[in-house]
Amino acid sequence: MTRRIATAGFQHETNTFAPMPTRLADFERGGAWPALLRGEAMLEAFDGTNIPTAGFLEARADATLVPLLWAAAEPGGFVAQAAFDAISGELLDRLQAAGQVDGLYLDLHGAMVTEDVEDGEGELLRRLRAAVGPDLPIVVSLDLHANITAAFAEHASAVAIYRTYPHIDMAATGARAARLLRLLLDGGPLAKAYRQLDYLIPITAQSTRREPGRRLYGLLDWATGPGVASVDFAFGFPPADIADCGTSILAYGTDQAAVDAAADSMLHALIEAEDAFVEPMVAATDAVKTAIELAKAWKKPVVVCDPQDNPGAGATGETTGLLRCLLDQPSQAACLGMLWDPDAAAAAHQAGLGATLDLSLGGRFPEIGGPPIRGRARVDALSDGAILCTGPMYGGATANFGPMARLQLLDHPGEVAVIVSTRRSQNADQAIFRTMGIEPSEQRIVAVKSAVHFLADYEPIADRVIFAEAPGANPCRLSRIPYSRLRAGVRLGPKGPPFMPHGASDGARPA
């Protein structure tokens, strides 16, 4: 008899230091991710995309799929409890209405924090288990930045985690989840092991294009063997002030002793690699000066990223620190994208192509990322914001950033073209510039608001990549983050100081 497998997705990466709450409308609207999908619409939307659900659908073999819903919102602040309850409630209702199913696949992130719950995914699984009982196989795919709790690990039957950052293996991870589900359906429950690392790793040091991430993730296939079906680990998402923030390991198989040994071996490898993690950021002023000097002997673009204002980690995407440095220096053939500024985008569309207007750019949260930049700007290109992505991470997906404009900022020493968008998102795909009439490979300096994902599409065209340290709501220097809820003793970065609750701030959450 053909097995019936229910599938659903509910993704959010929550930055508890971000100033903007994440509401139901953010899941319904879409952007870099598809808008909320229900039922059969899921099967069409993900065809040919690098999204875990797409990989799971491709690897489903002879199973009959029962698509429930899929929802994701751009990373940001706490998920409103009403939004979490509404989406979770609809998922449960649709699952119960689906009738008898043999298994459930969930496309989750692993770093969701709601207004009331530190472990959003663990709470979702708790509610599902209460509805379906302890025996139904529930297999989950997670982001490499998941903050995994023991409760989540207990409720999930098996978990597959991305192994690349930038995440070019999202669909492949969904396919691995499908294989784990087949193991459970054919052979029954798997032995499992869960471990936590005792130090946090900055986002900017987590790339698997660099060491030690490349080597550590390369060990995972070697860790499987007799009695061990799968070993994965998540680096964790540092800008989440919760007890279980940080790196964790999950292993599954048929032999508990072998599974425990595999998890312990991976934990030991991470402990041994501690000295190899290096924070790559340099002060924004120095980053721009270096970029300008390198650009004088232009061969390829110098790519400068703004990791602490990375919308892909919940930052606002509208800080002005890096842009101000570019404008204050005699930079030429420089471009920056994207700056989240709906007002500037609307003004540019109203003024029309070729118009010159006085604008106030960015700086909506000056206490986080500096004041706005004011002055004249010329409108050089306009777009409705619907962009077919072409890079290794998002290729095949259509993103919708709302009305966009390319502005040439005037009256400054630096010549900088700025892409402004109506919807907040990181720049991890060259199609964002190309849609606005800029060929990135022909620029001297390309500045992107992203932390690491940009590397997949931009590093191949770059002469040099520079990580600029400018203010933003994605703090990357862990010892400077005002944590208050971390578990006692976890260290703030490799060789960093241990967290002590009595030395933290009052932990007030942003409104």
Give me some keywords for this one.
511 residues; alpha/beta; nine-stranded mixed beta sheet; six-stranded mixed beta sheet; globular; disordered C terminus
Q: Give the number of DSSP strands.
A: 20
> Separation of termini?
52 Å
Unreliably modeled segments: 503-511
* Alpha carbon gyration radius: 23 Å
Number of helices: 16
Average pLDDT across residues?
A: 95
Strand residue percentage: 15-25%
Q: Label the structural class.
A: alpha/beta
Helix coverage percent of residues? 25-40%
Largest sheet, in brief, is: 9 strands, mixed
Shape: globular
The neighbouring-strand order within the major sheet is 10-20-11-19-12-18-17-14-13
Short description:
The chain has 511 residues and is α/β, with parallel strands linked by helices.
Please explain how this structure is put together.
The chain is α/β, with parallel strands linked by helices. Helix content is 28%, strand content 22%. It has 16 helices and 20 strands. The strands form 4 sheets. It has a 9-stranded mixed β-sheet. The C terminus is likely disordered.
